[in-house]
Write a structure and sequence with these properties.
The protein has helices at 10-21, 38-43, 63-73, 83-112, 119-138, 148-163, 174-183, 187-192, and strands spanning 2-5, 27-30, 51-53, 59-61. The chain is of the alpha+beta class and 195 residues long. It has 2 domains: 2-73, Glutaredoxin (3-Layer(aba) Sandwich); 83-190, Glutathione S-transferase Yfyf (Class Pi), Chain A, domain 2. It has a 4-stranded mixed sheet with strand order 2-1-3-4, with helices on one face. Helix 4 (83-112) runs parallel beside helix 6.
Length: 195
């Protein structure tokens, strides 16, 4: 299987970590998102990553779908099978993905308009980030077990720390920052750290 990805994408990192934790071999194919290849468009008509290309040539788009697929391939389960716990885990993943969305949007606004960026828009994204980080600071017990929710939160914070370090948990959310530092020592986290 091939994973079309970018080293700096928190969404692709989530899928990559899932594969590493499940000991699933993937061929990593880094793509240029500013000059999208025909192969990327064929695999995902939206030209977005990550995309998992299966051995039979079929493709799966978007990190939640890819992670579901990878989780079903090998134990141990990273998404709980109990219906109530599964829904809660997916809920936490969605909040973490929203953190990624806000961080990417805030960072890209400054990249696209370095001199004339929309300060109100960036402030709104940073407020969303702060609210999301506070939520996870207040719900640390729900991400204490290493599963897909924890992976998603780590990917979100990793991207925030990388692109918008002033908006990260350090100093503002000390319990969450400590949790992040501890989980970031896992080999899968070290191997996929953005940079």
């Amino acid at each position: 299987m091939k994973l079309l990805y970018s080293k700096r994408s928190p969404y692709a990192r989530k899928a990559h970590i899932m594969a590493l934790e499940k000991n699933i071999a993937l061929e990593l194919v880094e793509v240029d998102l500013t000059n999208k290849s025909a192969d990327l468009i064929k695999a995902n008509p939206l030209g977005k990553i990550p995309v998992l290309i299966l051995d039979n040539g079929e493709s799966l788009c978007d990190s939640p779908v890819i992670c579901e697929y990878l989780d079903a391939l090998k134990p141990p389960p990273m998404i709980p099978q109990d219906k109530k716990k599964r829904l809660r885990t997916l809920h936490l993943c969605a909040i973490a993905d929203g953190l990624m969305d806000a961080a990417v949007a805030g960072y890209m606004e400054k990249v696209r308009h370095p001199e004339y960026f929309n300060a109100d828009f960036i402030a709104a994204q940073e407020k969303t980030i702060s609210q999301g980080l506070k939520f996870f600071e207040d719900h640390l017990e729900e991400i204490a077990d290493f599963n897909l929710a924890a992976i998603a939160v780590i990917c979100a914070i990793g991207y925030i720390n990388f692109r918008l370090p002033h908006a990260g948990p350090s100093g503002k959310f000390p319990k969450l920052a400590k949790w992040y530092d501890e989980f970031s020592q896992r080999p899968s986290m070290e191997a996929t750290k953005p940079g």
